[in-house]
Amino acid sequence: MDAREAARLLKGVRAAALAGDRPPAAPRPEIAESWRRMLAGGVHPDRDTRSRMLSAAETEERRHTSPLRGLLPVLREGLLPSLDEALHIMVVADADGRLLWREGHTSILRKADRLGFAVGADWDEAVVGTNGVGTALVARRPVQVFSAEHFVSSHHDWTCAGAPVRDPRDGQLLGVVDVSGPLATMHPATLTWVSSVARLAERELRVRHLESLERLRSVAAPLLARLPGRALAVDAHGWTAAVTGLAPTERIPLPKSFGPGRVWVPQLGDCLVEPLPGGWLLSVAQARTGAGAATRVVLDLSRPGAWLATVYGVAGSWSQELTPRHAELLFLLAESPKGRSAAELALELFGDPTRTVTVRAEMSRVRRNLAGVLAHRPYRFAQDVEVELVRPADPGVLLPHSTAPAVVRARQGRTEPWGTPDRRV
């Protein structure tokens, strides 16, 4: 469809959606979901609301600490050579939707300034409406937004395509890379192109992670060879580089207050911790006993994008940040104390009970992170573990990225029994 004709059609679709009328065509599902969030959140469709810009010092601090900083060469190499800098702008935003870097011709940058698309600006969806940065962060998948698909009317002369960048180690959302420009620059392949570059950036992170573990392993291996008993070397985030006397494990959750000396570590018990270049050496002082077993778990889903599982035991407590999929799974298990089979979880996650392989793989990962907390056959929280589920005050923002049937029902306040077909009037 011609870009101008498409823009006219979408304006009619948006106008009907705002008026509650039947639209001339259905908006794309990800756009419809975003519009519903905007209407529920009170974003004004015709008022360009902008939050406080970051100062130069604040922006520079975020740039310095952002894991995306080291990926700029990959993003530039993947996008800029094929980018018409007179018509497009490349933007990199952090996980809060703050624009940290942008590149393009001076003329297009001036147009972006008038739109508020400037370094330091907040392009969170809840602030400026449906857009390629903020909506990609909420949906946690690549999103293209064209003309009147933008909820706020002042953005209708633009098109944008944004793809999230995740930490390949744990799925944590790091930010978004976006390509934007005037309507005439719209091309259906842009989203695939931007998504591919985002995946290249994630692959670069994975390579660097493996290289850092190999450097740590080269230092730790001679030490481990001389140590009696059980010990392992981990990086600053608990990823394992080498072990002795223990079954290999991918990652050990480290307590927040972690440093040299005698420390209680989940899965291991009391450990003597010594610093190594790029990580830590953990010598297990004694096996974990019932005194260190988990007695209570608080599953905090109250803050979108910042889901946390905190495990309490006699010996102390520790917390684990959750990926979107793990947050979904733990929510479903918290709602079903007797447990669920892989098929039942697949039905509630995907609407398809045959997708058990995916469920088992994800459950294997989450059980490694929450050792001693989860049981299987069926999947459930361990019998002696008290579970507290902290929901958001507004049910409509419960796991906003999720399309799982059970989560959608929970957001809508519906209580059909699990496995009951989703009935609509």
Q: Could you list some keywords that capture this structure?
A:
425 residues, alpha+beta, 5-stranded antiparallel β-sheet, 12 helices, disordered C terminus
Summarize the structure.
The chain has 425 residues and is α+β, with helices and mostly antiparallel strands.
Q: Could you characterize the architecture of this molecule?
A:
This protein is α+β, with helices and mostly antiparallel strands. 34% of the residues lie in helices and 22% in strands. A five-stranded antiparallel β-sheet has the order 2-1-5-4-3, sandwiched between helices. Strands 7-6-10-9-8 form a five-stranded antiparallel β-sheet. Strands 13-12-11-16 form a four-stranded mixed β-sheet, covered by helices on one side. Helix 4 (72-79) packs antiparallel against helix 8 (190-226). It is globular and about 75 Å long. The two termini are 34 Å apart. The model is unreliable at 287-292 and 417-425 (pLDDT under 50).
Beta strand %: 15-25%
Give the overall average pLDDT.
87
Number of helices: 12
Strand line-up across the major sheet: 2-1-5-4-3
Largest sheet: 5 strands, antiparallel
Rg value = 24 Å
Give the helix proportion (percent range).
25-40%
Task: List the topology elements.
Elements lengths: L2 H17 L9 H13 L14 H10 L6 H8 L9 E6 L4 E6 L1 H10 L9 H4 L5 H6 L3 E4 L11 E9 L6 E10 L7 H37 L4 E5 L4 E5 L16 E5 L3 E8 L2 E6 L9 E7 L7 E6 L2 E6 L2 H11 L7 H9 L5 H14 L4 E2 L4 E2 L4 E5 L14 H7 L14
Parallel strand pairs: 11-16
Antiparallel strand pairs: 1-2, 1-5, 3-4, 4-5, 6-7, 6-10, 8-9, 9-10, 11-12, 12-13, 14-15
